[in-house]
Amino acid sequence: MSVYLDHAATAPMLPAAIQAYAEAMTVVGNPASIHSAGQNAKRMLEEARERVAASVGSDPIEVVFTGSGTESVNLGIKGLYWARAPRTRILVPGGEHHATVDTVEWLAQQENAVVQWIPLDDLGRIDLTALADAIASNPADVALVTLLAANNEVGTLQPVREVAALAAAHGIPVHVDAISAYGHVPIDFDALHRSGVSALSVSAHKIGGPVGIGALVLSRTATVVPLIHGGGQQRQVRSGTQDVAAAVSFAVAATAMTGELTAENARLRVLRDAVIDGVRAAVPSAVLNGDPDPAGRLPGNAHFTFPGCEGDSLLFLLDVAGVSVSTGSACQAGIPEPSHVLQAMGRSEAEARSALRITLGRTSTQADVDALISALPAAWEQAIGAGMADSAPRAYT
Amino acid sequence: MSGGVDSAVAAARAVEAGHEVVGVHLALSRMPGTLRTGSRGCCTVEDSMDAQRAANIIGIPYYVWDFSERFKLDVVDDFIAEYSAGRTPNPCMRCNEKIKFAALLEKAIALGFDAVCTGHYATILTDEQGNRELHRASAWAKDQSYVLGVLTKEQLAHSMFPLGATPSKAEVRAEAAERGFSVANKPDSYDICFIPDGDTRGWLGERVAPATGDILDREGNKLGEHEGAVAFTVGQRKGLSIGTPASDGKPRFVLEVRPVSNTVVVGPKEALAIKEIAGVKYTWAGNAPEHPEIAFDCDVQIRAHADPVPAVAQVVTVPGENGAADGVELRIIPNEPLNGVAPGQTAVVYVGTRVLGQCTIDRTVSAVPVSIDPTTVNA
Questions:
Q1: Does the beta carbon of B72 lie under 8 angstroms from any beta carbon of chain A?
Q2: Which of A65, A287, A329, B217 is the least crowded, having the fewest Cβ atoms under 10 Å away?
Q3: Can you give the residue range of the structural domain that contains B350?
């Protein structure tokens, strides 16, 4: 039996979203066409946009569908950066998702951006004083501030409104990567916008919708320079024929998620605490990362370091035992890397290699938690025996 | 599983032989892009994807294990250090010795595996007493027993080479195509995986500070200057940039690299002939000979694709200098002189098809005396 405890990587699709997806795919019509078939498709698309908007508390017109959460983040960051020329400074906390890290580093290499990394504390939370100081040093040259709403590895919730308020005092736009938070904590774009947030990224597959569609929630008053040029769809911000069926499926998942959020949140916290208690009992040396206060972390996230063993070895042994977990964010070609998030939180490289992320979601049950906790001690003992990858080989007889 | 055709077929055969198999790809660089070599090398992201597809088709789990730190220390840094010391290392052998059949094998055993199975063309035979012996592959043209010569008895006990009995590479490719592997026609990797463009000299030049030194003939006369001895390897002909031609008009070759004095010695091709090689760092692939101190007949091979040459080998006591304790070295005297032997290379000793052992060459004796100095000793 396979136990899936990696909901942060991707969540199982909601059956209703699969059905809606399949049904919508039978409908012909380009929503940009003028004839009745086009108008019908357009109606389906805009209804979907309204439902997704409702799930994030925005106006429908503010929802720009994209091809992925990563595209949303690229559009939010690059789009705001270019629109804010000639300002060059980007303020970004350490330990962001690669969608952000690689985007701002690209802007630094190609577009003269000056990236200023704002430190995290040992729980993974942004240092607001450091951010305020960074802004105050020269508010006029800051192009934007971007940050995760919740860290995708350790699950720490960020003080998004406080960050936005600091930026808004100087008219600096803020992009929020809410992809890992979406579906787990309420998102109210209207309130965030009043605090100073200009753009917010989400993705459908984290909440039971399909892979291949995300959204950038972009305030009516914010300006971004598009990444993709063409037919001028979606307020000229994101050209390309719109994927009606994916949007419809996304909307079904978004509506279901919104309706269940409060109850699901409470249910996942109980399960998550069972994971934390179980792991600590099974492996007393395990260290919980992120905020120990349940109110300060994503309800479905438990993240540990296991000193002296590779997260990679543990992942393998748990996988063999039928339990799917993660060492961090899903990465390119499965090549394991030390967690840059833990390193940004001040941990050593060895600690950053010993991480394991356990994330729960809609289909998670107590039986899943029990399976993890019963497989863990043997896996841990064997992984400790395998040592760390950078230590010299011993005897192999 | 490197992402190449050989390891894919080896994995499939191991499954069919009844073993429980897990595909493992080695991440040898933290930044995969730095080892990117298109279709030529290994260890790229694309290769990892190829390996995973083959594992999918075979129906086995697949993981990437990170040995980048060990690879850097034991193979890449060692490669630079060896060249800097005037020797010519073989990084593929070092990788087998330190990574594939050491770091990987140790981790695998700790995680509950019994053996490392690779797509090397070599054969393991077991004698009546259950001792394992390493032998050449059936297809001599593809034989890779040379690069496995560093394996010890303990390592051989945990190694599997399912391709050893295959008559030809073409057969492996045909089998891969039959199995539906997309890598069936993928070009073989060659050169050194961490030098993407194959320009070893340029790569070393970026990592070792250049230092102008003299190019000398065997008699010690200065013929010209070079911009760093590290860029030269014994037997090299091109790139010497000596203005004046040799008195006999014949091309000149690098005979010796002396890192301490930063000099390069050149001479005629005949002077490359070596009549004796020796190394203090030797191992036996399986049981050691009963009396290695008694000279025995063997064949010696000094490069992966060189022909084996009949020779006499023995372990000899070397008196310690300046009060140091006596040491031992494996001394090999070929029946006829060998060409282009460089210190740092590995001499693998065969008896018939069996790999008996190997040494890293740290001393050679030229077959052609110089008028002033009758022997050229590379140390």
A1: no
A2: A287
A3: 273-366
